[in-house]
Automatic annotation (TrEMBL), chain A:
Segments passing through the bilayer: 12-40, 52-71, 77-102, 109-127, 158-179, 212-233, 239-263, 275-296
BP terms from Gene Ontology: amino acid transport
Transport as UniProt keyword: yes
Protein encoded by which gene: urtB
Keyword Mitochondrion tagged: no
Listed GO MF terms: transmembrane transporter activity
The protein's name: Urea ABC transporter permease subunit UrtB
Keyword tags: Amino-acid transport, Cell membrane, Membrane, Transmembrane, Transmembrane helix, Transport
UniProtKB/TrEMBL annotation, chain B:
Gene assigned in the entry: urtC
Name by which UniProt lists this protein: Urea ABC transporter permease subunit UrtC
Membrane topology, as annotated: Multi-pass membrane protein
Record field: transmembrane: 12-30, 42-64, 120-143, 150-173, 198-218, 239-266, 286-310, 322-346
One Gene Ontology cellular component annotation held by this UniProt entry: plasma membrane
Keywords of this entry: Cell membrane, Membrane, Transmembrane, Transmembrane helix
Pfam families named in the record: BPD_transp_2
Keyword set includes Transmembrane: yes
Keyword Transmembrane helix attached: yes
Location of this chain's protein in the cell: Cell membrane
GO MF entries: branched-chain amino acid transmembrane transporter activity
Length: 308, 380
């Protein structure tokens, strides 16, 4: 399959496909980060995670429309406000869902799966009723259009670079919050031993609510970033949910580093394969490889040793 | 209490009520079109029945039952499609004698894995064996390594995703997104006219009752008790010397085979098979049938399937927007408020009243795995 290309061509192909893979990687990481917190830390299977992401995307779309109509002079910077709004909207919805639904189901993880699936159906229909069934795309500000010429045969789109930079920043922020801040310590304490955490004075219910909210908020930011590279429809979230769960499980559920490593390997494999075969076969092979490896190593790539 | 290897007295009554409902009441009151719809719903009841064994009793939630439904359905559809693609039926094609979608995809010879499906005996064996062996492989790989619970659910979901993408992607071999359509005859017997649909309906109900009997037998055997024990305290069962993995594999395989029989019935009764019954969304919907009926109730699963599908058809015809809200709400309500579904409601509220009404002297058992829960609630 390499026969028709020269060495230089192949190098460029790998760089370009690698870059396409990096954009996919960014989306995976952003979605998987929230899920790693919710699933990895709390053990809740949130099938509605994709819909929280899409909420962020719709918030971004509305903000861009608002800026276009009322503040066209500031349009270049709308994205930063939109991202904050997306975080707040998805996070608030997440906390509401936790309060109404999830907190009754912590002891029944399989049932959270069914309940959140129901929630995702309702959210999808809500989006369809409010925003219409057609996909919407945001208008990018001028400075995000175009691409950077690295060499003659290698070009990288600016919005892709922006999304990747954003991913790095958010990942660092999440790592800081989870591992350095007082609140992150509380979250990890509750996960490791709920009763003891309560005994030393941590309000475990409140920690649960904010943790779930944070996970959903990050999904909202992921949706916001997603609008930079694709259009948004009511069911866009569902397309990514299984992949994202695989990313989290493959990386080892409780490990942030594992999540990033597995997002990287899955997205790179998929986008490199995509060049040589049809997209669907590339996806099948990637997923098969992941499932196969998970059968050999069920705890994922990076398993934390936690005493249960 | 008249207890034998299959059912006690109240279960016997429940099964007889269901039999009268399906064999006498529905065929007499519904026209052929509606009866065929019921036949379509009942194909999902096979899946729900398998999930009662696998999920309700064994505690293994599989979100990939659509895969097995699809495997069974595609095996049946391949046989029917080959029969429908005889040389004289397909003489306008550039290669006569192969299914139309292969011709459209520039395939000139029948692929090797299609050839055995010329034989009905092989097809029937394949409907049972292909999904059974596939489930055996997945189950062995997962349960021997003690992967269970949520991880298993996610991986079966990934398998469902892989299967759909594969079927849609390999258009030339599988018919792609449209699936296998235009199925006509079974051994020369036309499956499309009304009288054939009625015969197929009764055949399907017969198969369903055979599966119910198998499920009842498992439930009342020692095997069923071990499954329940395993669900409640897996480690203790393991320490008592049982091979937990083997019991789980068995439950998963039984569920897979039931689902496959349902899929084959679907291909026969509905006359086509497509990837839209294989993927993640239909697989989870099949779980909700079981959950609505009551995950512990064999008969409840059948009523649950019928009820949800009736609701789906009537609601989505008149208020398509409301249906998804309704389905989503149903998921949440069943999980939050009625974890044992219709059968739980029946066992908690209706059954005691009936018992009081007939002033039965029978000692009424309580708890959530008892026979009163397993009666199922007659829908409507």
């Amino acid at each position: 399959m390499f026969g028709d290309y020269s060495i230089g061509d192949l190098g460029s192909i790998f760089v370009m496909q690698g870059f396409a893979g990096l954009i996919l990687f960014s989306v995976y990481v952003l979605m998987a980060l929230g899920l790693a917190i919710i699933f990895g830390q709390m053990g809740v299977i949130n099938m509605a995670h994709g819909e929280f992401m899409i909420l962020g995307a719709y918030v971004t779309w509305m903000t861009s429309n608002l800026f276009q109509s009322y503040l066209p002079s500031l349009f270049g910077g709308y994205f930063f406000l939109a991202m904050i709004l997306a975080f707040v909207a998805s996070g608030a919805l997440g906390m509401l869902v936790e309060w109404v639904l999830i907190r009754h189901l912590y002891k029944r993880p399989l049932d959270t799966l069914l309940a959140t699936w129901g929630l995702s159906l309702m959210l999808q229909q809500a989006y369809r009723s409010v925003f219409g069934a057609r996909e919407v795309g945001v208008e990018l500000p001028q400075w995000m259009l175009g691409s950077l010429h690295v060499t003659d045969s290698i070009e990288v789109p600016i919005n892709g670079v922006f999304v990747m930079g954003l991913t790095v920043l958010i990942t660092i922020a999440v790592a800081y919050v989870m591992f350095k801040s007082r609140w992150g310590r509380q979250v990890r304490a509750v996960v490791q031993n709920r009763i003891m955490a309560g005994a030393v004075g941590i309000n475990t219910e409140k920690v649960d609510r904010y943790t779930f909210g944070l996970g959903c908020g990050i999904a909202g930011v992921a949706g916001s970033a997603f609008t930079m590279i694709g259009s948004t429809g009511p069911t866009s979230g569902q397309l990514y949910i299984v992949d994202t769960f695989l990313v989290v499980v493959f990386g080892g559920a409780a490990s942030l580093l594992g999540t990033i490593a597995s997002a990287f390997s899955i997205s790179q494999t998929q986008s490199t394969l995509e060049f040589f075969m049809s997209g669907s076969m590339a996806k099948v092979l990637t997923l098969l490889a992941v499932v196969g490896i998970l059968m050999l190593r069920p705890q994922g790539l990076f398993a934390l040793k936690v005493r249960k | 209490m008249t207890d034998n290897r299959f059912f006690n007295r109240s279960e016997l009554i429940g099964i007889l009520v269901l039999a009268v409902f399906l064999v006498v009441v529905l065929p007499l009151t519904l026209d052929v079109f509606r009866l065929n719809l019921v036949a379509k719903y009942l194909t999902y009841a096979f899946v729900a029945l398998g999930l009662v064994i696998c999920w309700g009793y064994g505690g293994i939630l599989s979100l990939g039952q659509g895969v097995f439904f699809g495997l069974g359905g595609y095996c049946m559809a391949m046989f029917l499609k080959l029969e429908a693609s005889s040389v004289e039926n397909t003489k306008i094609q550039s290669t006569p004698g192969i299914p139309d979608f292969m011709d459209w995809n520039q395939i000139t010879a029948l692929p090797f894995f299609w050839k055995p499906f010329n034989s009905l005996t092989f097809t029937i064996a394949a409907i049972i064996l292909v999904p059974g062996i596939f489930a055996l492989i997945i189950g062995t790989a997962m349960f021997k390594r003690r992967v269970g619970g949520t991880y298993f659910a996610i991986i079966t979901q990934a398998v469902a995703a892989i299967m759909t993408i594969l079927i849609v992607g390999q258009q030339g071999y599988t018919g792609g997104i449209n699936g296998m359509t235009d199925l006509r005859t079974l051994k020369g017997w036309d499956i499309r006219p009304d009288h054939a649909k009625i015969v197929l309906y009764f055949f399907e109900v017969g198969c369903l009752f055979a599966c119910i009997m198998i499920a009842q037998f498992i439930r009342h055997s020692k095997l069923g008790r071990i499954l329940v024990a395993m669900r409640e305290k897996e480690d203790r069962v393991r320490f008592s010397g049982y091979s937990v993995a083997n019991f789980k594999i068995f439950a998963f395989c039984i569920a897979a085979v039931f689902a496959a029989i349902g899929g084959a019935m679907f291909a026969l009764n509905v006359g086509f098979m497509s990837p839209s019954f294989v993927g993640i969304v239909p697989s989870i919907e099949m779980v909700i049938y079981t959950a609505v009926g009551g995950r512990l109730s064999i008969l409840g699963a059948i009523y649950g399937t019928l009820l949800v599908n009736f609701a789906k058809t009537s609601l989505s015809e008149t208020f398509p927007e409301l249906w998804l809200f309704g389905l989503g709400g149903l998921f949440i309500a069943v999980v939050l408020a009625f974890p044992n579904g219709l059968a739980g409601i029946w066992g908690d509220y209706v059954q005691p009243r009936i018992d009081r009404l007939i002033a039965s002297r029978k000692s009424k058992p309580d708890g959530w795995t008892d026979s009163s829960v397993a009666d199922g609630a007659p829908a409507e």
